[in-house]
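User: Could you go from structure to sequence for me? I need the amino acid at each position, not a summary. Structure tokens:
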């Protein structure tokens, strides 16, 4: 599982309920809970702003660059957020460089 997907899942308000369901499923099948416990520990000891950091760029930034709202708009923001959650970028400047690279493709 990609780190970005894991962080989104762990940042979700429904995550504790999901943990309960997974624990019940694993226990009923007599499977180890090690991976689930790792996820719980990671969630409990990772600051919220690491799991769900504020976006480095926004829709307003895209509009300022002349990008029109539409299906590509959300896709671009998601790609930038994925890179941020994957810890590939950390700053607004890096986000704009990545955005430029994405737009050139």
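Assistant: Here is the amino acid at each position, in order:
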């Amino acid at each position: 599982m990609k780190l970005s997907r894991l962080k989104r899942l762990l940042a979700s308000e429904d995550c504790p309920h999901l943990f309960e369901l997974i624990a019940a499923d694993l226990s009923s099948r007599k499977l180890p809970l090690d991976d689930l416990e790792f996820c719980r520990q990671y969630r409990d000891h990772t600051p919220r702003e690491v799991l769900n950091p504020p976006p480095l760029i926004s829709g307003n930034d895209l509009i300022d660059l002349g990008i029109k709202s539409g299906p590509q708009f959300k896709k671009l923001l998601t790609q930038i957020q994925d890179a941020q959650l994957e810890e590939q970028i950390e700053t607004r400047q890096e986000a704009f460089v990545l955005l430029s690279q994405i737009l050139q493709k």
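One structural detail worth keeping in mind: The chain has two domains: 3-51, 59-104.
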